[in-house]
Specification:
ten-stranded mixed beta sheet, 16 helices, globular, alpha/beta, binds calcium ion, Inosine-uridine Nucleoside N-ribohydrolase, Chain A, 338 residues
Length: 338
């Protein structure tokens, strides 16, 4: 029996509906990306450069702002600016954090002659205010990926305490049961030791959510062999810039300079990439809720009286993370987003 024409039309529309891409669906997809502020001491250890590239190549993340933190923040901003230019992502504003000195970094040669004034995107001279404005103006919680000593974050919390409730922290801080290189005792981790008062403020803030990767997990990440080679040999201009920076950086680090083959065969420890991962997922790590106190020497000591946050204390699958990292870094890049 033939269907009534109206019923037939309704049925046809119902069948077609899921297949028709709509502007609303595209907007939903864009909205589902995690808005991120990256607070970085890029230029000291090379892992921040890896972390920035990873953030730019992660389709789950929508990088709203990159802020340089600790030491010579204007110098660090040059490295960020040149990388964002190469990435075709000058739509991302750069905030210059609290400038503490004029030191240059082991990556200085890469930005020799680069003038920040030529950065075609927005350059925000008050990086602390940029963090506050980005957090407070967002209609949804923003994830603060914090991968350096955090004087900016301490100052932002002092200037506008309400940012804590608007931000989800994914940080790289501390050492609970393991030290550098998987050593069986905790030690003073750099991001905390370099600025204990700022790290104390960061760990005590009432974030909407908070997780940190201490050395226990992030200190074990290193790419070697074929996995490293896939990144080293990539034709992606952004990865070429990453490896170029790594090759400039290594001779300026005593332990790396001693081994002429180092940069040819493996990465250094990629601590900060884990904080970027934690902005996307926690699946590959085991987490524990712990209160942690910061000593004046930069030790992070479990203390039930301290504010509890989530700590990624062990890997569920470190091998899986390293593969994820390489797949993600070497994936073709999407067009620049507006
Ligand atoms: Ca760092």
């Amino acid at each position: 029996m033939p269907q009534h024409p109206v019923i037939a039309t309704i049925l046809a529309l119902a069948l077609l509906a899921p297949a028709i891409p709509t502007a609303a669906a595209a907007e939903d997809a864009a909205r589902s990306r995690v808005p991120v502020i990256l607070d970085t001491d890029i230029g000291d250890d090379i892992d921040d450069t890896w972390a920035l590239v990873l953030a730019l190549k992660s389709p789950e993340l929508d990088v709203k702002l990159v802020v340089t933190d600790f030491g010579n923040t204007a110098h660090r901003a040059k490295i960020v600016a040149r990388l964002l230019e190469i990435a075709g992502r000058t739509d991302i504003p750069i905030g210059i954090g609290i400038r503490e000195n004029d030191a240059e970094s082991p990556q200085a040669e890469w930005v020799k002659g680069y003038e920040l004034s030529r950065y075609p995107g927005q350059l925000l001279k008050d990086g602390v205010q940029a963090i506050i404005d980005t957090a407070m103006s967002s209609s949804e919680p923003v994830t603060l990926v914090a991968i350096g000593p955090p004087p900016n974050i301490r100052a932002a919390l002092e200037r506008e305490p309400r940012i804590a409730g608007k931000l989800r922290l994914a940080g790289m801080y501390g050492s609970l049961r393991r030290g550098y290189g998987g050593k069986p005792k905790p030690e003073a981790e750099w991001n905390v030791r370099a600025s204990p008062a700022a790290a104390r403020a960061l760990l005590a803030a009432p974030w909407a959510e908070a997780i940190s990767t201490p050395l226990d997990t992030c200190g074990l990440v290193q790419l070697k062999g074929q996995r490293y080679a896939r990144v080293r040999d990539s034709e992606d201009p952004l990865l070429r810039a990453l490896i170029e920076n790594y090759r400039l950086w290594c001779p300026r680090r005593d332990w790396c300079a001693k081994d002429a083959e180092y940069v040819s065969v493996k990465s250094s420890t990629l601590f900060d990439t884990v904080a970027v991962y934690l902005a996307i997922s926690h699946d590959l790590v085991k987490t524990e809720p712990l209160g942690v106190r910061v000593t004046d020497q930069g030790m992070t000591v479990p203390d039930p009286a301290a504010r509890v946050l989530s700590w990624a204390t062990e890997w569920r699958d470190l091998d899986g993370f390293e593969e994820w990292l390489v797949v993600r870094l070497t994936a073709p890049r999407a067009a620049a987003r507006r």
